[in-house]
What does this fold into?
Amino acid sequence: MEKNKAISWDKYFMGIALLSAKRSKDPNTQVGACIVNKENRIIGIGYNGFPAGCSDDILPWDREGEGWLKTKYPFVVHAEANSILNSTKKLIDAKMYVAMFPCNECAKLMIQSGIKEVVYLSDKYKDTDSVKAAKMMFDMAGVKFRQLDVKDDKIIIDFSIVD
It folds into this structure.
């Protein structure tokens, strides 16, 4: 990227979603989400983690365990849901940027909250019933979704340049 060339809105907001993901304590999958309105103003940010007041040190972060309650799945709140819950404005006609294509549960929340477009990076779970259901619901509800093509782009944040 040229030194003085501004990045696109898509890359900017996806970058914020990815930076937000760095707040997650999940050792396997860190996901962030950023919601913007029609004026390209951020109105919600979230990352995957446990509900407020539920200890990251007590609840399990494991993908597999001796029973469902020994895994992270019954406890973790997805980045998409957290960004909706953390939103500061109504989400009608908003756009969500998220690292991974949303699951069916998050898709329902997004549709109900009024989000009209989803921009994502990875679709690695595209063959799962959860993602297939999400895409079916998005199509029915008129929610656009598209994968952001960033090729080999990289944005480096260098804190040392601030005096």
